[in-house]
Amino acid sequence: MTKLGxxxxxxxxxxxxxxxxxxxxxxxxxxxxxxxxGILAGIEDGSLTVxxxxxxxxxxxxxxxxxxxAGLDKLREPLTLYVLGLAGIDxxxxxxxxxxxxxxxxxFADHLAGLYRRGTGWLGxxxxxxxxxxxxxxxxxxxxxxxxxxxxxxxxx
Length: 157
Prior knowledge:
Layout: E1 8-12, E2 15-19, H1 23-30, H2 35-44, H3 48-55, H4 64-70, H5 72-87, H6 108-122, H7 127-132, H8 135-153
Antiparallel strand pairs: 1-2
């Protein structure tokens, strides 16, 4: 599980820019050609275009020159961590996958839509609140709701 409440801060033009991996940002980047695989490849390749697409979601007024001057090599790790946060992946979680029957594959678009359904449906959050939540927040709130229903209903399933 990704870290709750943990933002990623980068320095651009001498100012701190907070990158918060919200569901709305994940949906926007997923729609980009190549989806998240393309974003991660772009970050690894030092793509200024990809860095701009990510950073301008949080600071629309930032210039290309400021991002370039910040150093694409320096931005590689925090931007990668941000994208992993958008995907709901904690790079520090080294737990092994559960044994047994493999999970059916799901597109990343379907995964994000599922997070939206959990936020608005299961949790009853309004759309804006759901879109402003991080995947980790939605996942943990959903787990809490399921635990609560199990206790109320007396079921282990």
